């Protein structure tokens, strides 16, 4: 139910809840045991081991250092340094949320930081920019297009949420700029400008998939909805499929055996708790 989903997502962003759970006897250890299904590790070395294991299985990876809602440009610079090291240590793709780069308080600086990371990636690799709530959608789009306009579009990816009514226009803009597009249903509970969760969002997803195919865009399916995924694959051919770490690895193996390109989102870092609660919210709200 939508109410259940809204409540769960509210809890997933509640810092006090995290402090309470971690403060209970054995609370952090128990939470980590549950979260570790979805999280590659609390350190970069742990994440790289998980990424290497996925690569050995024949899947691509997109590695993400947890972090969001930063308002400190100095902290954002430290994040850039971490990503520059990641770019040297793995052949995989990278992923991040722009609020981790202080886009809310320094949009121009965030674009410069993205450009520095993207500039460190070799041919065929991408920095995928994550989706956030609609309050940031314009800033995210502007940042991605700004960096793409510097001749870096072929090393950028943007996440488009099917539940947002604006997404057809965003797809056109990203495709025109040569940015890879990761199509998701949309995890945030939005106050306005969004299709209801369920059939309306599913229909929007299908329409956007066909729009992407018609444009000849570089794009991927990022959904764990098997019926929706197969409907797109049957209609449009072997579109690459992306999934979150820890969710239905059997599906990834089956897709790989069908010679469909696969990619696994590999997140890590000390800020794992709220990401885990979001995964719980999605599974309970579906």
Describe this structure in words.
The protein has 286 residues and is of the alpha/beta class. The protein folds into two domains: 1-39 and 272-285, no CATH class; 42-268, Alpha-Beta Barrel (TIM Barrel), CATH 3.20.20. Helix content is 52%, strand content 14%. It is built from twelve helices and eight strands. The chain has an eight-stranded parallel beta barrel with strand order 1-2-3-4-5-6-7-8, surrounded by seven helices. The longest helix has 17 residues, at 73-89. The model has no long low-confidence stretch (mean pLDDT 91).
What is the subunit organization of this protein? single chain
Order of helices and strands: HHHHEHEHEHEHEHEHEHEH
CATH level-two architecture of the largest domain: Alpha-Beta Barrel
Which bin fits the share of residues in helices? Answer: 40-55%
List segments where confidence is low: pLDDT < 50 over at least 5 consecutive residues: none
Through-space gap between termini:
8 Å
- The level 1 CATH classification of the largest domain is Alpha Beta
H/I helix tally: 12
**Largest sheet, described in full?**
8 strands, parallel, barrel
Number of strands: 8
CATH topology of the largest domain: TIM Barrel
- Count the domains: 2
Structural class: alpha/beta
Shape: globular
Strand content: 5-15%
- Report mean pLDDT, rounded to a whole number: 91
Give the radius of gyration: 18 Å
Strand order of the largest sheet: 1-2-3-4-5-6-7-8
Pfam family, one: Pro_dh
GO molecular function: proline dehydrogenase activity
Domain Proline dehydrogenase: 52-283
InterPro entries: FAD-linked_oxidoreductase-like, Proline_DH_dom
């Amino acid at each position: 139910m939508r109410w259940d989903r809204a409540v769960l997502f509210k809890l997933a962003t509640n810092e006090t809840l995290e402090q309470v759970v971690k403060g209970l006897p054995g609370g952090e250890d128990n939470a980590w045991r549950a979260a570790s299904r979805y999280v590659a590790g609390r350190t970069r070395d742990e994440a790289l081991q998980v990424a290497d294991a996925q690569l050995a299985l024949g899947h691509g990876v997109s590695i993400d250092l947890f972090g969001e809602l930063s308002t400190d440009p100095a902290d954002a610079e430290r994040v850039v340094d971490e990503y520059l090291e990641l770019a040297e240590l793995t052949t995989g793709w990278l992923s991040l949320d722009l609020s981790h780069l202080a886009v809310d308080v320094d949009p121009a600086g965030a674009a410069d930081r993205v450009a520095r990371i993207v500039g460190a990636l070799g041919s065929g690799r991408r920095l995928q920019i994550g989706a956030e709530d609609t309050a940031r959608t314009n800033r995210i789009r502007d940042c991605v297009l700004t960096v793409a306009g510097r001749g870096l579009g072929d090393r950028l990816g943007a996440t488009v949420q099917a539940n947002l009514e604006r997404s057809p226009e965003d797809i056109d803009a990203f495709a025109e700029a040569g940015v890879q597009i990761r199509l998701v249903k949309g995890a945030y509970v939005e106050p306005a400008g969004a299709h209801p969760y369920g059939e309306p969002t599913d229909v929007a997803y299908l329409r956007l998939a066909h729009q992407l195919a018609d444009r000849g865009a570089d794009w991927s399916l990022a959904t764990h909805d098997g019926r929706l995924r197969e409907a797109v694959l049957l209609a449009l051919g072997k579109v690459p499929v992306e999934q979150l770490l820890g969710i239905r690895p059997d599906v990834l193996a089956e897709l790989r055996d069908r010679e469909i390109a696969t990619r696994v989102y590999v997140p890590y870092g000390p800020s794992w708790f709220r990401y885990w609660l979001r995964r719980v919210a999605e599974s309970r709200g579906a």
